[in-house]
């Protein structure tokens, strides 16, 4: 029987490391505060590489590991809230630079939950359209939309991304077993990035947007903890899989305290949550594939292992996916 499996994973982050000490040179903060409240010690910041550049580097690694040629891709989905431009999409830019001529290409805007939404969209499309190979990317250059004078946000985020090559073929692995995708648009104002101004010869009142991240940190914190607990519980209930069968929970890397609080509420040992946010901060849609890539490179992922991926973010959106490698 055909299953949609993750056949290759890759990630890429810019080389510039920006420490908490460096950030405290231009906003009123300090290393101890940031580490204690978030768990983050450093993040990568782009000096000019755009979202498509990061996506392409991550994709090349994933394609190589999957043994898939770019020209054999049927689908490219990029989850990002910091695209190079409105059009062409990052996915179309990738198609051109990778020579993935026959792929259907589009971006999705689901903020930090984007990679998980992308996995499920690809999974469903591969089955309904009989696609063989797909590329799902989560990548961001959030530094472009950061307010570098706001200590409440600029300490949290980093740039980077990851990519997964999916195959739809007969396999012993069940691959993407189940997704739980939810949104709460009523709370959208808690985390926003403005887009283009509304200022035409016909507008009654021009609306000029702040093209920077604005966030109500406490509101997002509460939402995030509940979103993780609900998503993990729902995916377990829906599939009948027990916690003992899960090797790792792979959470979106926003804040150590959010994950600790959700882990306590769910009664799942902290050691079973894989974290690397200390070194990369919150890379939004990039965070889950960056973590998966690190786990893969540390040989923590073996055939047959089951993981729950869980994410939450702007929209507000949240999601969990049960995956067998
Ligand atoms: N350095 C030093 N002090 C800071 C600071 C910083 N970087 N940021 C805020 N503070 C100050 C505040 O001004 C406030 O001071 P006051 O008490 O004198 O008013 C105090 O620290 C507490 O602020 P508060 O906002 O209540 O802190 P917090 O414990 O909620 O931590 C966040 C702030 C942003 C770290 C936390 O709310 C958070 O992580 N929220 C979730 C954000 C997130 O993950 N977003 C992305 C989701 S995908």
Automatic annotation (TrEMBL):
Residues 236-325 form the Beta-ketoacyl-[acyl-carrier-protein] synthase III C-terminal domain. It is an enzyme of class 2 (transferase). One of its GO terms (biological process) is fatty acid biosynthetic process. CDD domains: KAS_III. One of its GO terms (molecular function) is 3-oxoacyl-[acyl-carrier-protein] synthase activity. Catalyzes the condensation reaction of fatty acid synthesis by the addition to an acyl acceptor of two carbons from malonyl-ACP. Catalyzes the first condensation reaction which initiates fatty acid synthesis and may therefore play a role in governing the total rate of fatty acid production. Possesses both acetoacetyl-ACP synthase and acetyl transacylase activities. Its substrate specificity determines the biosynthesis of branched-chain and/or straight-chain of fatty acids. Belongs to the thiolase-like superfamily. FabH family. This is Beta-ketoacyl-[acyl-carrier-protein] synthase III. The gene is fabH_1.
């Amino acid at each position: 029987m055909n299953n949609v499996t993750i056949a290759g994973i890759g990630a890429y982050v810019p080389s510039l490391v920006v420490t908490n000490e460096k950030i405290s040179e231009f906003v009123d903060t300090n290393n101890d505060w940031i580490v204690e409240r978030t768990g983050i010690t450093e993040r990568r910041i782009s000096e000019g590489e755009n979202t498509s550049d990061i996506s392409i580097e991550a994709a090349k690694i994933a394609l190589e590991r999957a043994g898939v040629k770019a020209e054999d891709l049927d689908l490219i989905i990029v989850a990002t809230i910091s695209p190079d431009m409105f059009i062409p999409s990052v996915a179309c830019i990738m198609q051109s630079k990778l020579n993935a001529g026959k792929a259907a290409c589009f971006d999705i805007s689901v903020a930090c939950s984007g990679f998980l939404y992308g996995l499920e969209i690809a999974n469903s499309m591969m089955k309904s359209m009989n696609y063989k190979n797909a590329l799902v990317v989560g990548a961001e250059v959030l530094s472009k939309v950061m307010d570098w004078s706001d200590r409440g946000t600029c300490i949290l985020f980093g740039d980077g991304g990851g990519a997964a090559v999916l195959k739809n073929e007969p396999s012993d692995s069940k691959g993407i077993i189940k997704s739980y995708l939810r949104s709460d648009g009523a709370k959208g104002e808690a985390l926003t990035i403005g887009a283009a101004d509304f200022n035409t010869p016909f507008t009654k009142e021009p609306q000029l947007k702040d093209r920077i991240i604005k966030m109500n940190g406490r509101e997002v914190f509460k939402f995030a903890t509940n979103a993780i607990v609900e998503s993990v519980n729902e995916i377990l209930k829906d599939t009948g899989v027990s916690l003992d069968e899960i090797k790792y929970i792979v959470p979106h890397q926003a804040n150590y305290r959010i994950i600790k609080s959700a882990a306590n509420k769910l009664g799942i040992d902290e050691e079973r949550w894989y974290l690397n946010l200390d070194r990369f901060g919150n890379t939004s849609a990039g965070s889950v594939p960056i973590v998966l890539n690190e786990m893969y490179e540390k040989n923590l992922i073996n055939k047959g292992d089951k993981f729950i991926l869980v994410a939450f973010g702007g929209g507000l959106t949240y999601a969990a996916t049960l995956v067998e490698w």
